[in-house]
Each structure stands twice: as structure tokens, then as C-alpha cells.
UniProtKB/TrEMBL annotation:
Pfam family, one: Metallophos
Name under which the protein is recorded: Calcineurin-like phosphoesterase domain-containing protein
InterPro entries: Calcineurin-like_PHP, Metallo-depent_PP-like, PAPs-like
PANTHER family: ACID PHOSPHATASE RELATED, PURPLE ACID PHOSPHATASE
Gene3D superfamilies associated with the record: 3.60.21.10
Keywords, comma-separated and alphabetical: Signal
Gene Ontology terms, MF aspect: acid phosphatase activity
Domain Calcineurin-like phosphoesterase, first and last residues per copy: 110-306
Organism: marine sediment metagenome
Length: 590
């Protein structure tokens, strides 16, 4: 993948009406990662005024660019605001090739998280001073931005006006481009002039801020800054579009999370889905399926504490200790990793295209680190060979290896050399298959559809292997009913990465497959972190030799074993067996 960036400047502030438009085309995938201040009209197009850009330094940038035919185009044209034929000026262009891993996209984008803060107190001031010292790119809030009858500008702008765009308050000029993204809390409705004061005070997401601009309101909205896509939702009961997991608002969030191509998708809200505080505690009505929808983490407030909770690999943060009086500890959530209520504080988050780090700081001593956690995306791996266990005429072919079950009359070999997908040359590794059964009548798209965009399976198999088709096995005592894949000829000096994917695509059945690796000297289980149809974890950890695959795999989960060492015999075995709770067989293509 590639990163492409360009800029233009006339170097004369007298020309303020000459805009440059940059449009990308011909690419298969890309993410618009342009700087704050440009106008993002779509993922493919941005524009900014070129007349005085030497003062601003705006950059049009796309990351993660791929093009199957090896060609993509970025076109520079004038914007309709230009007043004559001299349109765009002094272009600087660079491209950065991605080799072995995603492009980091330069220095991290940093943002602060504050919540339950707006009471014009000395404690709010201490937190604001600490946050100001971080030099964050933007600020998000978890609600309760303004308490009591104090004017909202005294509760918010007095401390954070330098981040607020379209600022009309009394504490300085504000920000040229908005970089303050609040969410609504219950006190934003009940106190002072109510929600109208909030809506009149903020312009959300703000002019010049990249956004899908699809919600049509400022109560819930989204904003994109570099690799981070922020989704602010309104969980207060007065929300006219509802707050249930099936509400209009939730449907908007689900659709936007699915459509987002940003590396990190952050949800901010007020009521905590999970919390160990003695004052409010968890909010079952806000326990939406954020992870299944594609979110990276959820930030909330309402409880005036800090807490980090890890639910099946999904991070939930409570950050409500940024000014208002602190709350106590109640019943500790079993998945709570850190609970803190000794002093006021805020969170600092640092994000690149490949990692996102969450830090919690207290104001003690002017700033003390309390807790941290980090998510690192695995480096991109270029797989050498792809095998289609149920290939049929008309499906993707190329240099895909086609080795299948000996049962069912595929007409395909049951043993052979894996083929290098890029070159078409045979590798030294032989795949042999026993057991299982090929269903020749199940090649239509309804039986094992291709994985959805944005899933792990899609990232690995899209364009390489068609997922339509079935390989089945019987619920009999192992190994009689098992599908067994044996790899031989592996080099003991090498480490291998192996991924399997299957999808039954029928929610009327509750069936699961157990995929097991054996015969290795070493391996790391890096399968998808999730739960199956019955809420059971897919695997227990990096040393688990087996991974459960749910019978219906719309989320594109994969079984993945990395750093596999075959040992001196050069052989490993992968076994797919029945591990479900109903039915006599599982059908899925691998």
C-alpha cells in the first residue's frame, strides 16, 4: 500500500479566492488522512484555498492506497471560488511505499479525553492546565460539559477556548478549525439553559473538519482527524432519535462504523456501558454491540472516576473525573483492569496508522501517569500461497492452489505442491487432505459468501480466493469425521503464518468448528479476538492450539497461527473438527 500527499501554495495572502481541488481515482482502497483545515467533500476529494496556504500548510493526503492494476491518479483542478485562470500553485508531492507493514503516517495524532468537568472549579482548572501542556491535536468529552446555572462559556470556554472553532465567547479568539468534540450528558439537558445552550455554543463537527456529515444534527455526529474516526453519540433519554441498540441513532452508528476506513474508530458517550462506581454503575441500555459493529474503544463518563474495562478484547473507558466531585468504588466489574478515584484527571491518547496508546493521567504533582494500554495492529504479511478447498469453475483462479477433499467428486487433487500466488511457481511445501466431503451443489453465493469489507478475513483473502462452496465433515469420533490438512516439506529454519477461514451463513443452525494445529515446535495463536454463537471465546490465548470458529461468520473472524516452526521433520497438521452444540455436521469453506 502507498501514502500519497500533496500541497499547493500561492504565497500571496492577497489571493484568498483561489482554491485547489485534489481528487484520487483508480485506486482499489484508500483512507483520506488530510490535515485539519481542508474541506473533505468525499473520501476521494479535498480542497483548500491555495492563495495563502503558506501560512497554514494544509496537506491533501491519502493512506493505505492499493491499486490492483498498479495505477492510480491524483488530479489537481481549481475550485469554483477561483476568480481567474490562475488556479493552483507550487505543488509539492511525495509518495511513501509501504514495505512489510502499514505506513505510520508520520508523528502520532494525539487527543485528550475529559468528562464531567464543566463546573468552573479549581479542580477543572488543574485538569485543563495539565491538558493544555500536552499540546494535543484535539479534545473529546464524555458529557456533562456544563453544570449549574453558570454560563456555559465560563464552564467550558474559560478553560478550552483554544480548541473551540467558531468560538463566540469571551476567552480569547478560539480555534481557526474546531478541534473540540463534545458529547451530551444529562446535566447538559437539566442544568442552566439546557441543551439549547450546548447546541448554540458549539458548531459540530465544525467547518473544515473531515466528517461523513450524515447524521444531520449536532446531538450525535462524527469527525475524522488523521487515523482516528470519532463518533459522538447521545445516550440521554431526551434524544429524539432514540438510545436503544435498534434506534435510528444506533442504526446510524452501525452504518458509519461499517463504512469507515479509518484505522481507529472511537465512540464517545456519557452513560457508561460498564462501570464499577458506587454512584451510577453500568448502563445496560447502552451495552450496544460496539465491537461487532467495528468500534475500537468506547469512552464514557457519568461516573466521576477513571476505569479501564476489557470485554472480550473491546476496551471500555470511564473518564468522568475531570472536574466534578469524585465518586466511590462499588462492585468491581470482573473485567475491570484499572479503577482510579484518588484525584482528578484526564486521558491522553496517541494514535498512528498502526498503533493507538491510551494513557490516564491524574493532576497529582502536575501530572502523574496512572494507567496505560495499547493496541498494535499486526504488521501486514504478504502470504505466499492461497488454497481453495472447494474451488469450482467460474470462481477466482489466478495462481490459487486447488487441493480438496478426496470425497465428493471435486475432480481436484487431494495432494500437491502449494503454488506461489505472485509468481505461479511451485513451492517446496506439499498440502495433503484427508477426510471431509465436498458438496458440489453448494457453490452459489448463499453458501459461504465472501467476507465483508473491513474484516480480517477480507483483508487476507479478498481477490485471492472465492469463499463460495462447502466442505463438510461428520460429527463422529475423531479422527474419522475430521477434515485433516497435512503440510510437509516445511523448512525448519523458517517461521510460517497460517490462516483459515470458513463461513456457514445460516443462523438457523448453531454449529461451531474447532481448528487445531499439531506437530509444531512453536507457534503463536493470533486468531480473531471474539466470541462464538454461544458467547464463548474463540481461543484462550497465544498458546492455545485450537480456535473455535462460529457456524455463522459474518464478522470475518479467522483462525491464525503465526511464527509456526515445523521442527526437523518439516511437517505440521491442521485439523478441523466438530465443536458445536447442535446438528450432525458443519459446512464451511476453508
Amino acid at each position: 500500500a502507498y501514502t500519497f500527499a500533496t500541497s499547493a501554495a500561492r504565497c500571496n495572502p492577497a489571493y484568498t479566492d483561489r482554491g485547489s481541488v485534489f481528487t484520487i481515482s483508480g485506486a482499489d482502497t484508500y483512507t483520506n488522512a488530510s490535515t485539519l483545515g481542508v474541506t473533505v467533500t468525499s473520501e476521494a476529494e479535498v480542497w483548500f484555498n491555495a492563495g495563502d496556504n503558506y501560512n497554514e500548510g494544509y496537506v491533501a493526503r491519502w493512506t493505505g492506497i492499493t491499486a490492483s492494476d498498479g495505477t492510480f491518479t491524483v488530479r489537481a483542478t481549481h475550485h469554483s471560488s477561483a476568480n481567474d485562470g490562475r488556479k493552483a500553485y507550487s505543488f509539492d508531492v511525495f509518495m511513501l511505499a509501504q514495505q512489510g507493514g502499514p505506513v505510520t503516517g508520520g508523528p502520532p495524532v494525539t487527543f485528550a479525553v475529559i468528562g464531567d468537568y464543566g463546573d468552573n472549579s479549581s479542580d477543572e482548572a488543574a485538569v485543563a492546565t495539565m491538558v493544555d501542556g500536552w499540546g494535543a491535536d484535539f479534545v473529546v468529552t464524555t458529557g456533562d460539559n456544563s453544570y449549574g446555572s453558570t454560563p456555559i462559556d465560563d464552564n467550558v470556554g474559560k478553560y478550552y477556548s483554544s480548541f473551540i472553532g467558531n468560538y463566540t465567547g469571551s476567552y480569547g479568539p478560539g480555534a481557526t478549525v474546531n478541534s473540540f468534540f463534545p458529547s451530551l450528558g444529562n446535566h447538559d439537558y437539566s442544568d442552566g439553559a439546557g441543551v439549547n445552550a450546548y447546541l448554540n455554543y458549539f458548531t459540530l463537527p465544525g467547518n473544515g473538519v473531515a466528517s461523513s456529515n450524515t447524521s444531520g444534527n449536532e446531538r450525535y455526529y462524527d469527525a475524522i482527524v488523521g487515523p482516528v474516526h470519532v463518533f459522538a453519540i447521545n445516550c440521554v433519554n431526551q434524544e429524539p432519535d432514540g438510545t436503544s441498540a435498534t434506534s435510528t441513532q444506533a442504526q446510524w452508528l452501525q452504518a458509519q462504523l461499517a463504512a469507515s476506513t479509518s484505522p481507529w474508530k472511537i465512540v464517545i458517550e456519557h452513560y457508561p456501558p460498564y462501570s464499577s462506581s458506587s454512584s451510577h454503575g453500568p448502563t445496560p441500555g447502552m451495552q450496544w454491540p460496539y465491537k461487532e459493529w467495528g468500534a475500537t474503544a468506547v469512552f464514557s463518563g457519568h461516573d466521576h472516576t477513571y476505569e479501564r474495562i476489557d470485554k472480550d478484547g473491546m476496551l471500555y473507558f470511564v473518564c468522568g473525573h475531570s472536574g466534578r466531585s469524585l465518586y466511590g468504588l462499588g462492585t468491581l466489574d470482573p473485567d475491570s483492569k484499572m479503577f482510579y478515584n484518588s484525584n482528578y484527571g484526564a486521558m491522553l491518547v496517541k494514535a498512528t496508522n498502526t498503533s493507538i496508546k491510551f494513557e490516564s493521567w491524574s493532576v497529582t504533582g502536575g501530572g502523574t501517569l496512572v494507567d496505560s494500554d495499547e493496541i498494535v495492529k499486526p504488521a501486514s504479511v504478504v502470504f505466499t500461497a492461497y488454497n481453495d478447498l472447494a474451488w469450482a469453475s467460474g470462481q477466482l483462479e489466478g495462481n490459487t492452489t486447488k487441493i480438496s477433499s478426496p470425497n465428493g467428486g471435486t475432480g481436484l487433487p487431494t495432494s500437491g505442491k502449494l503454488v506461489n500466488f505472485d509468481t505461479g511457481d511451485e513451492t517446496n511445501i506439499t498440502l495433503s487432505i484427508t477426510g471431509g466431503n465436498y458438496n458440489a451443489g453448494s457453490t452459489q453465493s448463499g453458501n459461504g459468501p465472501d467476507p465483508a469489507s473491513g474484516t480480517e478475513a477480507y483483508d487476507i483473502f479478498n481477490g485471492k480466493v472465492s469463499s463460495q462452496g462447502h466442505i463438510s465433515y461428520q460429527q463422529t469420533a475423531p479422527p474419522a469425521g475430521n477434515l485433516v490438512l497435512t503440510l510437509t516439506g516445511m523448512n525448519s529454519a523458517n517461521a510460517y503464518n497460517i490462516v483459515l477461514y470458513g463461513h456457514r451463513d445460516d443462523y438457523t443452525w448453531d454449529r461451531a468448528s474447532l481448528m487445531t494445529i499439531s506437530g509444531t515446535d512453536a507457534f503463536t495463536n493470533n486468531s480473531s479476538v471474539a466470541t462464538d454463537n454461544f458467547g464463548q471465546p474463540l481461543f484462550s490465548g497465544p498458546t492455545d492450539e485450537s480456535t473455535r470458529m462460529p457456524s455463522d461468520n459474518d464478522n470475518g473472524y479467522v483462525t491464525r497461527f503465526d511464527n509456526v516452526a515445523a521442527g526437523s521433520d518439516g511437517e505440521i497438521v491442521l485439523t478441523v473438527s466438530f465443536d458445536g452444540d447442535a446438528g450432525s455436521l458443519y459446512k464451511g469453506k476453508y
